[in-house]
Amino acid sequence: MNTPKLVVMSGLPGSGKSTLAERIAGHLKLPIFSVDPIESAIIKAGIAKSFETGYAAYLVAETLTEEQIKLGNSVVIDAVNAEDEAKQVWIDCAKRLKIPLVIIECVLKDLALHRNRIEARVRDLHGFDEITWERVEERRKAYTTWKEDALTLEMSADANKNFEMALDFIA
To answer: Which long-range contacts (CB under 8 A, 24 or more apart) does 16-22 make?
Structure first.
């Protein structure tokens, strides 16, 4: 990529966005900033988990993104980005840095499959209990649609096809 881009992954927990984000970042040799592990590190430092630690994780990811963009590197962001305020962080960042914002939204319409993924998931992040299906359903109700152009991928579809579609959209 000649021009740095801000690639933002978005979707409910367990939708498959982190798996796809890691695959994209690995293939394109891009840094990836994942909000949950950043928040986990903040909690590990002794700060009690709260709204503020989640917000701080977004700010850390944003700051690291800015530093990488200054070096001419594109960046992949891995976060739920459920509410408009979270989405706005990345919209403002891309505008401020005058770079393209590439949004890839991961959805999983098969609720039984989604629930199975959530109930089987083990991330082992310090300070995080595994999310419950009930909490995912709460997040679903609060989830807002991106107003910006985005690629929406159905994550129960073929993983290789989704990966290729994502790479095409980024290009």
So the answer is: 16/106, 16/108, 16/117, 16/155, 16/159, 17/78, 17/80, 17/104, 17/106, 17/155, 18/78, 19/159, 20/104, 20/106, 20/153, 20/155, 20/159, 20/162, 20/163, 20/166, 21/76, 21/77, 21/78, 22/78
